[in-house]
Request: fold
Amino acid sequence: GQQLNQSPQSMFIQEGEDVSMNCTSSSIFNTWLWYKQDPGEGPVLLIALYKAGELTSNGRLTAQFGTTRKDSFLNISASIPSDVGIYFCAGQGGNQFYFGTGTSLTVIP
Amino acid sequence: DSGVTQTPKHLITATGQRVTLRCSPRSGDLSVYWYQQSLDQGLQFLIQYYNGEERAKGNILERFSAQQFPDLHSELNLSSLELGDSALYFCASSVLSGTRGNTIYFGEGSWLTVV
Reply:
């Protein structure tokens, strides 16, 4: 199935730094979703975006639905150690949800 | 808590055996999805059901099958298990299929180890 291009693949940052990651697709999506997954656990929904251009925040997290409907961005401000994990984007097209390959985030105290 | 319940959380079984994974979707969700995630890998879509009917198939092996029951819970059956089937299996659910504004929620997963 289709997979989204998610970058970067991994990030190593200092505590307190801001983080940016993005997803791109060759297809137009109706919905963009961002998840965080801790090892051995299920992905947890962070932010859902439903309209092109929409900008939504959840605490220190901010995500945007790209105006072309083919991309989305996630920013984390002032990172803390508990932000460590794998972040996945997902796009909905028709019946299906397509997932990015994940961004592994390591926060160095 | 996403509202999606999966059982069992962990199981260990021998090659050649058969196991059944169970999923209860969020209240009101009609669509159930199954995903496989191997170590350090992304989410591989297996199959989707909507209101009891198969809606979409992904990379699901012929040894695997699934169904969704009238009460909307779903089961994933894995048979003739091989070492390579060891993985986390996730169930996810969403309200409607193909509608704008849809969101998908994941269970905590069933960790299968084949020895």
In short: The longest strand of chain A covers residues 85-93. Chain A has a mean pLDDT of 93. The radius of gyration of chain A is 13 Å. Chain A touches chain B at residues 1, 3, 30-31, 33, 35, 40-45, 48, 50, 88, 90, 92, 94-97, 99-102 (CB under 8 Å).
